[in-house]
Design a protein that fits this description.
By secondary structure, the protein is α+β, with helices and mostly antiparallel strands. It has a domain of 174 residues: FAD/NAD(P)-binding domain. Helices cover 29% and strands 30% of the residues. It contains eight helices and 19 strands. Strands 4, 5, 6, 12, 13, 14, 15, 16 and 17 form a nine-stranded mixed beta sheet that branches. The longest helix is centred in the N-terminal third of the chain and has 21 residues. The protein is globular. The chain starts with 9 loop residues before the first strand and ends in a 16-residue tail after the last helix. Its EC number is 1.4.3.19.
Length: 340
Amino acid sequence: MPLFNSPEPSFDAVVIGAGALGLCAATELRRRGRRVAVVDPGGVNASAVAAGMIAPAMECAIDDLSLEAAEVLRRARDLWPAFAEATGVRLYGDMAEWRGGDVAELAARMAALGFQHQYDAASARLTTHEDAKVDPPQALAALARGLTVIEAQAQGVSPDGQGWRVQTTAGAVRGDHVILATGADPALEGLPLEARAAVACIAPIRGQIGLVRERLVDHVLRGPGAYVAPMGEGSVIGATMEPGARSVMPDAARCEAMLAAAWTVLGQAPRPLTIDWRAGVRGTTPDGLPIAGQVAPGLHVVLGPRRNGWLLGPLIGAVVADATEGRPVAEPTLHPSRFF
């Protein structure tokens, strides 16, 4: 039975998808006085299967990113303190550390990109105070607070006068603007050619993590093959990066290998732990940076953040909110037109 009564509910903006990018966009629009609805089927999404890293320094060094890409991640990080205060998201973390592997190379990359760091060659330790984190369950709940969330599956979109009509399993809803935050999902029915081209740029990449009841560390600790980070009252062990994989069933062999790497990073002998292993599927673009911007009048995309969805959330939210207001593109590097 349809959830809505006639006439169809109408909003200034309808966001399809309640992951980090979708909720950050919806929250930013709401902060600017817009009436916003979020359409999402519910359940655990990829943003929940994450450690919540706000980590430009480590991510840029690990992935050997360009200076241009590093500046995008740095600008995203700089938006987080004010965004967290305004939304009730808990932002924390004083230090991130890397142990093992080619620490000297990582330190050189951080230096080249201008990130503050300390490198101790004798102990093979690299630390930085530029990174932070959030806890995804708390952050998702805080961002959703006060939003109109329609628990339904979006099925298709179509132009509707000055806006768009979104057909869902609970009925239809319309918005002056529609924002696609659909992760690595296939294109919705009715999308115009430009939007379909943007969605076609997105490839799936699976990540697996383990939620641990025990508090193993007091700061983010990384190394070859694994990281260990605080999470709520416990810890999280992560994370795999598996291009092309779409299964959300954890892979036992990969999880065991990740756990073994985590013990090495911790410098501890293995011992029994209670671990809840999870898998989530993210979206990524050919160049590893997300796409964010308008692809047709009133139709916007926020897709493909790879493993930096939480870091990029406030920046992408601001980019989309600006676009709905007709402002100049603040981050042209992220516009989907770079791929078509």
